[in-house]
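[Discussion] Sanity-checking designs against the backbone

I'm trying to build intuition for which residues belong where. Below is a C-alpha cell string of 343 positions. I'd appreciate it if someone posts a full sequence so I can compare it with mine line by line.
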C-alpha cells in the first residue's frame, strides 16, 4: 500500500508524490515521499484503477483537468481539458458510471465529464453559479464559489457553494444535461464548503469553511424537504484567531464524523448519536499548519493528514469502536500537500 499526496506547486513541490506505507498497527509508518507525476497545482485528484484525474494549472491563462494512466509503473498523460481562467477546486468521481465532476471556485462553473477506459474526457454539461444569496464575509462578496460537486446517496448531484451559502441539488438527465432540483440555504456567512451523508441517506452534514461549523440537516431526496437539525462548532469556544474548516469525512458505519481545521490546526472528531445529532469526542493536533485534506485507507484504520504550510504529513491510528485518533508518526516530509489518497 502507498499514500499519494498532491497540492500546490508554488514553492518546492513538483506535483503528486507517492509515500510507501507499511501496515503494522502502532508501528505503521509512511516512507520517503517520491515525486511520481510532474504537474502544476494538483490540489485535488481522484483515482479509478490505473487512471488518475488531477487538477492542472499549467499557466496563468487557463486551468482544468489532466488524466494520467499508469503503465509499466509510470504515469503517462493521456488527456487534458483546459478552459480560460482558474482551475477547479474539487474533483468528484463515479467509477461505475465513468463520470467525473468538477467545481470551479473562481469561475463559478460546475462541470460533468464522461471518460473512457483509456482516460479520454468528454464534457457533457456545465452550469454557472451566479450571485444569488451572497454571504456578508469578505470571501463571499465577490461572487459565487462552488467548492464541491459530487453524488448524493440516491445518485443525484450536489454542489456546495461557499459564496452563496447554499447546497444545490441536480439531476443529470437522459440527455446528459444538468437539471437543478432544489436548494438548501445555510446561515449567512456559513461558507458552505464540503458535505457528507448519513448511512441511511436521510441526513447530511455540511462543513462551513468561514464559520468553522458543521450543520446537520434532515432531508428527503424525493420531496426535497429540508429540516435544520443542529449546528456545531469545529473549534474551541475561546478560539479567537483565524480558522477555516476544510475537509469533512464520515466513517462507513455512519458513527463518526471528522473535520480538519486550518488555523486551529486540528482534526475534530464527533460521534453521531442515534438521532443524528453530534457529540464532540476529540480535538487533536495535526502537528503542522493548515491541514486542508485528510483521508483513510479502505479499512479506515489509518488516517493521514497533509499540512500545506509546514510541508509535512501526520499518520494516525483510528479506533473504530470509539472513533478516537492516536498519532503514531508526524513530521513526514511532503511539500505543499492539499489532497491525500490511499492507493
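Best answer:
Here's mine. Compare freely.
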Amino acid at each position: 500500500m502507498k499514500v499519494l499526496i498532491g497540492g500546490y506547486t508554488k514553492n518546492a513541490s513538483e506535483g503528486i508524490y507517492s509515500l510507501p506505507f507499511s501496515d503494522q498497527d502502532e508501528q505503521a509508518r509512511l516512507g520517503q515521499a517520491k515525486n511520481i507525476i510532474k504537474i502544476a497545482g494538483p490540489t485535488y485528484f481522484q483515482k479509478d484503477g490505473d487512471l488518475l484525474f488531477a487538477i492542472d494549472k499549467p499557466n496563468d491563462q487557463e486551468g482544468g483537468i489532466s488524466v494520467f494512466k499508469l503503465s509499466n509503473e509510470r504515469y503517462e498523460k493521456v488527456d487534458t481539458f483546459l478552459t480560460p481562467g482558474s482551475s477547479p477546486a474539487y474533483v468528484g468521481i463515479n467509477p461505475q458510471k465513468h463520470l467525473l465532476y468538477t467545481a470551479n471556485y473562481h469561475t463559478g462553473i460546475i462541470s460533468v465529464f464522461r471518460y473512457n477506459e483509456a482516460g479520454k474526457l468528454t464534457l457533457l454539461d456545465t452550469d454557472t453559479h451566479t450571485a444569488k444569496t451572497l454571504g456578508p464575509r469578505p470571501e463571499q462578496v465577490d461572487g459565487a464559489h462552488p467548492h464541491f460537486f459530487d453524488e448524493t446517496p440516491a445518485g443525484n448531484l450536489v454542489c456546495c457553494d461557499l459564496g452563496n451559502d447554499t447546497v444545490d441539488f441536480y439531476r443529470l438527465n437522459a440527455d446528459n444535461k444538468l437539471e437543478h432540483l432544489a436548494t438548501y440555504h445555510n446561515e449567512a456567512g456559513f461558507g458552505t464548503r464540503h458535505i457528507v451523508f448519513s448511512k441511511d441517506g436521510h441526513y447530511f452534514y455540511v462543513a462551513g469553511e468561514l464559520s468553522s461549523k458543521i450543520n446537520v440537516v434532515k432531508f428527503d431526496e424525493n420531496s426535497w424537504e429540508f429540516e435544520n437539525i443542529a449546528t456545531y462548532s469545529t473549534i474551541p469556544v475561546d478560539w479567537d484567531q483565524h480558522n477555516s474548516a476544510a475537509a469533512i469525512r464520515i466513517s462507513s458505519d455512519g458513527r463518526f464524523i471528522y473535520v480538519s481545521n486550518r488555523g486551529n490546526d486540528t482534526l475534530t472528531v464527533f460521534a453521531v448519536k442515534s438521532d443524528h445529532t453530534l457529540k464532540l469526542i476529540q480535538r487533536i493536533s495535526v502537528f503542522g499548519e493548515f491541514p486542508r485534506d485528510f483521508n483513510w485507507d479502505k479499512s479506515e484504520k489509518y488516517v493521514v493528514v497533509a499540512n500545506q504550510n509546514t510541508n509535512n504529513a501526520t499518520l494516525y491510528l483510528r479506533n473504530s469502536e470509539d472513533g478516537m485518533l492516536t498519532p503514531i508518526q508526524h513530521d513526514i516530509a511532503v511539500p505543499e500537500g492539499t489532497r491525500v489518497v490511499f492507493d
